[in-house]
Amino acid sequence: MIATAVSSAQLEVSNNPSITAPNRNKEIIYILNEKGIFQLKDAVVQVAHYLGITKNTVYLHLRNLSNNGVGNDEIKKV
After folding, report:
1. Which ranges carry the Transcriptional regulator DauR-like HTH domain (predicted)?
2. Domains in the chain: how many in total?
């Protein structure tokens, strides 16, 4: 389920030329957060693995979304 959601988000982001390369992972994490993926157990670790980034980077992007008032307010560390 998580792998499918990540693949779908990656495809959506890669098909949008207005999203710059440095912002792709941020946008993918935003999309996944909107879908509620991070409410699933171990989602942060799995998303980090699929994106080739650390779980700390995923948490950083989620914190930034939360601080900006975007997405779910119930982001929980695993």
Report:
1. 5-63
2. 1
